Amino acid sequence: MATMTDAQWRAFVSAGTRTGKLATVRADGRPHVVPIWFLLDGADVVFNTGAESVKGRALRRTGVASLCVDDERPPYSFVTLAGPVALSEDVAEVRRWATRIAARYMGADRAEEYGARNGVPGELLVRLSPTQVVALADVAD
Fold first, then answer.
1. Domain boundaries, position 82
2. pLDDT tens, position by position, 99-131
3. Residues of the chain with pLDDT under 70
4. 140 lies in some domain
5. Which positions fall inside the Pyridoxamine 5'-phosphate oxidase N-terminal domain (predicted)?
6. Among residues 26, 31, 93, 137, which one has the fewest Cβ atoms lying within 10 Å of its Cβ?
7. pTM above the 0.90 mark?
8. Rg, C-alpha atoms of the chain
9. Within a domain: residue 7?
């Protein structure tokens, strides 16, 4: 097992179409974990979600989240990122990022379609600014 450098974990979470598993806390204290599409933007993890979804309400209420990105194939690696979130409801910004995120996961030919679907009023743009990073490679080696 090896600890990834900053450059290594950034490359790892940006590779291919790995989804992130976002953890938030419900109002009653129960955990909530869901897969998300995301991109890195400098030091931030950027994704969008419905403002009235469980995660949207939790992010607004607590202002924090954790994200895990993993490789489920041997020798197994993972990165967890935790920190505060900033939320934006600016529709133009949400749509721009929704389109960029869609290009990663659905391909350039469908990016506009998904950007239009996900970049609408009622959606939030979320920026997770990691203050804690755990990044381990080759866990089973």
1. 1-135
2. 999 999 999 999 999 999 999 999 999 999 999
3. none
4. no
5. 7-133
6. 31
7. yes
8. 15
9. yes
